[in-house]
Amino acid sequence: MELAPCLLLLLLPLMRVLAGTSPSPLPEPCELDEEDIRCSCNFLDPQPDWSSALQCTVAVDVEIRAGGRSLEPFLKRVDPEANPRQYVDLVKALRVRQLKLGDARVPAPFLFGLLRVLAYSRLKELTLEDIEVTGAPPSTPLGASGLGISTLRLRNVSWAAGGAWLSQLQQLLKPGLLKVLNIAQAHSLAFPCEQVRSFPALTTLDLSDNPALGEHGLVGALCPHKFPALQDLALRNAGMKTPSGVCARLAAAGVQPHRLDLSRNSLRATSNAGDPECVWPSTLNSLDLSFAGLEQVPEGLPAKLSVLNLSCNRLNRAPRLDELPKVGNLSLEGNPFLVAGASFPQENTMNSESGVAPACARSHLAVGISGTLAVLQGVRGFA
Prior knowledge:
Elements: H1 4-9, E1 30-32, E2 38-42, E3 61-65, H2 88-92, E4 98-107, H3 108-118, E5 125-134, E6 151-159, H4 165-170, E7 180-184, E8 204-206, H5 218-222, E9 232-234, H6 243-253, E10 259-261, E11 286-288, E12 304-309, E13 326-331, H7 346-349, H8 358-361, E14 363-367, E15 373-377
Parallel strand pairs: 2-3, 3-4, 4-5, 5-6, 6-7, 7-8, 8-9, 9-10, 10-11, 11-12, 12-13
Antiparallel strand pairs: 1-2, 14-15
């Protein structure tokens, strides 16, 4: 069976395309910039011209969206378990370093076959977005090489395997190279932790935009003692309720981040009655509690921090020293007690949806290099 059409569909236009099988739509589904750096494809035509993706062979940053269609028919034309070594020279010739695949229903054998071939490429960052993975993956192991990526981002990806998807995907990765893992809008974060191997080099884990996760789901998602090198943990908009509750889950999972982002959760300032006092990781030096709807400084914060971000909350007075940890850099911008005219009616002075200062509705906070914290205009990610 022929592997080429399958791989071309999801980026590898390095082999022959079934030319002439569909009319060429206007405008072209793929565009390559003048510097041959970025190539993007969006196959929306009912009869897409896959050959348009050939121009992406020279690009470094490639995005391919399949127009929401199922790729099941391609399984009839390809052998996803074929030995990918026959394509090694062609794959190594590709310039691609960043690849985004999206908007498709993809059979698991198809996806895993593609990743087996990409293991011979120079790919460093892989993003899967708006994808439904159907069926079971093939039993054929990837082999000794593995996919040598340092960054993996998944957004709105569903798996027929349920929570077992992480351990299955992990089998495709070269051990010890993945440093950044971002999982957003996940359909399942309840991993069977006994099947998950350690991520020895992972320094950044971002589980933001999973509002159903909650504190109770955090231990299952973190899988105890699987992230020994973790430094940055982002849990924005992830259903967290109290900082102390998060602290308890971190302790249970044996996770010791240096920087923790709990912004954009609806946090309570008081701990749950009966909760034991939690000891925060000694490594933690930066805590982001911005955009959390807090009306007072939460209980149970770490005793000492380099950075504490309480910006864009609902603090009506300056925090007392006995409410704060020993902190080197405290950010309070955008709280009512600092806003000129804060005594005016709320609808005039505060954002009607969040109750925070108008400036906060137009900005996102970012933690900068060396623990320096600033308020920046525009949307910025967790570094």
